[in-house]
Prior knowledge:
By secondary structure, the chain is α+β, with helices and mostly antiparallel strands. The chain contains five helices and 23 strands. Helices cover 17% and strands 46% of the residues. Strands 4-3-2-8-7-6 form a six-stranded mixed beta sheet, covered by helices on one side.
Amino acid sequence: MQCLECGKKEAKYDGLCEDCFLKKTKFTELPQYIDLTICPHCHAVKFGGHWEHVPLEDAVYMMVDRNLKFMHEYDSYRLRVEHGEIEGEFHVLATVDITYKDIHTRELHEVLFDLKYESCPRCNRYYGNYFEAILQLRGLREYEVSEVIEFLRERVEYYAQKNENLFITKSVERREGWDFYLSDKREARKISREIARKYGATVKESPQIAGRKDGQDIYRVTYSVRLPAYRTGDVVNVEGTYYLIEGINQNFIKGKDILSGKSKLIDSKRHRIYMLVERKNIKKMLVIYQDGENVQLLSEENRVIDARTPWHLEPGKYVNAIVVDGTVYVLP
Length: 332
C-alpha cells in the first residue's frame, strides 16, 4: 500500500510513509510559559501544594517533564533541558528524542519560565520567630556549658533530618542558665529527655495555652532540664559513706566506695546524695612513702601530709586525693 499523502512510498504509519507521517504528526507539546515558585531564603521549589529542596537544574527539568504532553502514541522518549538567562528572562530549551516503532525523531521546544518568589512554610516560621517549646538548661557548671549545648544542637540536627520543620528559633543566655526556643514541641520533648538520660538530669514539663486555632487550644510547652549537683568524677556523701562517682543516669549513680573500693549502684530517688568534692577540686599528690596503711604524701603546695589508706601505693607516683574536715582520703 502506497502513502495516502504522496503516493510514492510505502505506507507504514497510519497510512503514511515516514516522511509524510513526520510532517503531519506532532508528538509533544509544551506551554510557552511555565511558572516556577522558589523560596528566596532556602531556595526550596514549590510543586503543586508542596515544597521540595532540589537544585534549580533538577527543578527546571521536573517542571518541563510535568508539563510535557504527548499528542501521539510512542514507544520511548528522552528529555534534555538547557536553560539560561537572556536580558533578564529565564529561557529553557527542551529537546525530546522520541522512538515510535522504527522511527527516531527529535522535537524542540522553547519555554519562558516565570520565576516567582514566595517564602516556604518553614522559612515563614523561622523568620517569623515561630516556636512551640522552650527548652531550659539549668544547673550547668561553667566548664560543661559548651558540651551540653553542643549535645543539644547535635540532637536538633539529627531530628531535623527527618523533620524539616524543626529548628532552633533563638537561644538566650540567662543568669540561671540557657533557654532554647524550638519550633516543634514533640521533638523538644525527645531532646529534653535525651539530655536528662545523658547527664542524670530531671525534666519538668509546663504547658501553657498560646492561643486558639480552628476551635482548638494551641499549647506551648516549657521543658526545664535541671542537672543534678553532682557529676561523674565527683565525690559524694551517701548516708555517711563517701563514693567516687563512676557513672550517672536519670535514676541511678554508680559509685565506688573510697574506703573499700567496692562499686555500688545507688538509687538517686531513694537516697539523699550530698555533694562533697567536685572533680575540679580533687588534689594530685605525690606518694613519698608507705608502710602498711600509713602513707606520706607531698601536696601540690609541697607540704608533707600523713594519711592512711587501704590501697597499695607506689612511691614516686601521683595519686588523686581529697581533704574532708582535715582528713586526707586517697581515691581508689
